[in-house]
User: Fold these one by one.
Assistant:
Number 1:
Amino acid sequence: MCFLQSLQKIASIFNLIKFSHTLFSFPFAVMSAFLAAGGVPGIKQLLLILAALVTARSAAMSFNRLVDTNYDIQNPRTDYRVKLQNKIGRMNLWLFTILCITLFVTFTWLLNKLSFYMSPLAIIIVFGYSYTKRFSHLSHFVLGLALALSPIGAWIGIQGTLAITPLLLAFAVVLWTAGFDIIYACQDIEHDKKLGLYSIPKKLGIKWALILSGILHFFMVLVLLILTRYADLGAIYAIGVCIIAGLLFYEHSLVKPKDLSRVNIAFFTINGIISLGLMGVTLIDIFSM
């Protein structure tokens, strides 16, 4: 019975932190690792990089749920998070967060010195995001920065240094994430106004927020095309980026200022396809050379 209860709590934690959304960041880590290695990276390095990514994200999400409890309970879209917390136990969730951070630092230490030295900065960024919406409309970009750590960290994990390629890829991730998070935040505009939280939809209104989101995604595509030169990628990658541009256009066509009913399709389905698709065309391009 105790074993079954433990499994149920673990399942509840994974549900609470939306473990499946790791899909948004791990493809960029894989892309960066293969680009850094100029082919297939060492299996040990790759596994350590992915383990570091998963534990950092899990810690960040569980921390977010803990510190946002008073806000989540007042939002019909997120009040289920508090119910899950009560089922798991706040102390258990804190222990999970601490365990994930400990594992993350350990994995970076096993990779190389620079990864280890950069780990405290990564923790500050991914934890700090949870507080930015309390005082800044730019929290969407901080979330983007948090996800952008995945290609930077992967490159450092392989090479032990930084270069222009992972920085460009990280910039693309910031633009992409901020763009889709702005779309997602349109759902919470009334909630943000009521509780005094900050967001771009609250600042600009839904219409202009969606326009800004589209502009960010346009520049994301430009950055990905610029990456073609610096990462020595070819036609397969470039064609893939053009297809992604089409998917982004479709994503924006799903959401209208007066109709947010398809936000979840735009946010989850399309962006999942984009991240996996970009990884796929990148790897195919690398191996076709």
Note: Residues 172 and 220 are 5 Å apart (CA to CA).
Number 2:
Amino acid sequence: MAFRLRLFISSLNNREVKPMYMFKYVMKRLGLMLLSFSVIMLICFVLIKLLPIVVTVQAGEDAKIVYAQLEARGYIQNIRYDANGLVIGYDRVPILTQLFIYLKRIFVYGDFGIGVTMSEYRNQPVWDVFIEKLPPTILINIYSSLIGVPIGIGLGIFAALKKNKWQDQIISTAVILLISLPSIVLGLVIQYVFCYKLDWFPLTMLSGYDYFSWKMFRSMLPAVLSLCLGSIAGYTRFTRAELTEVLTGEFMLLARTKGLTRGQATFRHALRNAMVVIFPSILSEFISVLSGSLIIESMFSIPGVGRLYIMSINAQDYDFFMLLSGFYCLVGLAAGIVVDISYGFIDPRIRMGAK
């Protein structure tokens, strides 16, 4: 009786310990994420501030007004003019002073800045432009995942079940080709074949904000296909490799001897164990697609944050660059935490944070 009581108490303690381990692990990872985020953003801030300021003005605009805006934002000081009123020089505000002003604007006033050097977005609040450009980027990445995940996992399962047969050879060859080609090359092929030769889709995305209409979705498809083809290859490779290894496990032989058919043993046991590796790869693949959309958005004229990011780098618009760098950095770091935590929920044998 005493032994059973001790065993019951021990089981209760183990149930309490695992959430405590997970809580400590999550808090530790969040702390490391914030530290990494702060260091990366500090490096980005210093590097962009070390570059010379590029001021572009359109016809009818006065460059003196642009420099005055830069001075008002705390970027430069002591602007010097020649006899004709043209700017001939200025002094840069120390980087630490600029950093203090930038952080004060964000945390005290909620001001992420305004566009200065990009004439298209000059004097527009950075945060408002970011929110306006976010839906197209999110949509093309969601569409690519909705298309890529089921097709990729399905092809991986089929290739694993047909291992070393001609079906597996064809799928493996296609996977190697798609993984070897960058998304920009796939985008050029899709533009030439499907948009130019076959005329199935428009070359660029339609303008407007009706993102859920059929015409808008059709104009997004070339960019979506350019992103999801590489994802399909990645999902297929992960699924085939993991499922092939699981299918050769001893527990699969035991499941078959108990009377389960091959299909039942595969979907009830093998696929469930293989998902421990496959599911986190889906999250990591989504992040890689989000990063790859930077170039694809420019190719297909997608009015998203990726295209805006490239423009801010070329124009060296500080506030746009910092906000968008923080967005992509935060998404990548948060995805790493989600992937790590997901292991503990998918596989009960894994105890995150346990010694």
Note: The longest strand covers residues 76-81.
Number 3:
Amino acid sequence: MNDKVRAHLGTLMQRYPQLAVCRADIAEAYELLAECFGHGGKLLIAGNGGSAADSEHIVGELMKGFKSPRKLPQAYADKLIAIHPELGETLAGNLQGALPAIALDGHPALSTAYQNDCEPLLCFAQQVNGYGSAGDVFLGISTSGNSKNVLYAAVTAKAKGMKVIGLTGQKESRLGEMADVCIRVPETETYMVQELHLPVYHCLCLMLEDKFFGLR
């Protein structure tokens, strides 16, 4: 664990002391994600209700600048300008570095078609089946850890050779049993679990941004 990771975790624990019990699991989840993105992989995220909103929130933090500006590498910026000087100049000046992440709660045409034609609870699993590849990561967010559509997606991810991270509440769960690492925040009431999920994934996103786009 490098000094920047320790610093981010330290800040999280200072602001949310109750998350100290999750420190090792958060660090392990970070390592899985860093390895995934470092090898050109992607993150697939699924959850229901407020956890679906959290899935979209995480994608927003990873796919564009969160705290850092994430300027494009100069060689890539030069290519954009070489292809089309006018349009390329705008692209080079405004595109930001991204860590590829997809929230599976969207895609209404696909989701409604699959739910109508097939098995509704397998909608996330179908997307993992289509988008996922060995070396990718599936992040399942479930306050109970027992949401069936998330569990089906986790099983599919494992079969594809993906790593699985769970983000749940305090109780033991089926997602926790099958995940490579499960971050179990120390609450059991749904809204209280969700209140602690946000600082956890913000910390993960900050650490990942620092690794891939921070100053060297």
Note: The first strand starts at residue 43 and ends at 46.
Number 4:
Amino acid sequence: MTEIFVGSKQLMIEDKIKNISFPVLLQYPTLESSRPISFGPYTMNVSPDAKIIERQFPLIIISHGNGGSHLLYRTISTHLAKNGYIVAMLEHYGNNRNNNKLENTTENLVTRPRHVSLTIDILLSDKWFSNYIEQYKIGVIGHSLGGYTALALAGGVPRTKEGLVIKVASDSRIKAIVLLAPGTGWFMDSLTKVTIPILMFTAEHDPITPKWNGEIVLNYVPDKSKVTFKEIENSGHFSFLSPFPMTMKNENFLPSTDPVGFDREKFHSYLPTDILDFLNDKLNGN
């Protein structure tokens, strides 16, 4: 059997209306052998700018959390790419580790979903990728505030604390979403238009997006049969991030920490497989 490897390509997406740009790292199936490549402090086994396998694949967009990075879900992205998906990890402008000036703003709640849709637009028109994307098989994975992003794109109507509707465009091209410890407080009783399949994981010990965030999805999505839900025992909010290199693990660096006794490395040996199985079922009908 032919071995599948993971290709990678880095893009800059321009938002011409806002006059800004943001990076996107793509991973995809290739027959060209991969090797350890450094992306900042992280290492991924990829083949940079390799030729993609000549067939069409579903497209998955990954949306990171507040003040996070698009590189923090590499265990998930690499596994999906190796198993037949094109994966785009975007770094949200103004809400990332290097530039968080839009944190806690309504503008951030508007631009996050917009930039996912813009990334899809660019990839579907890109001369390099467009022929290889199954345009009716697109999904979004969102962690924390990325979960908000996915729900807004799926038809959720966000509101401010004062109850004012935040005007966000949904995206009917998205056919399934995966929520990892999602932030959902903007969607109280406003998920009636969310009708696509959802896989949702929550953490047992999560002070950032506590249990009630998951309950909003379970209570307000109109068709409960569309939601597959798992609470991960003894996990924390950051347990969904790929394990950090030993040099970055520090009790003062919260994203690298987990509740006592939780094995993040072991968790990430099966989390990507659970996500893959869901996407294969809901997007590919396997």
Note: The longest helix spans residues 264-284.
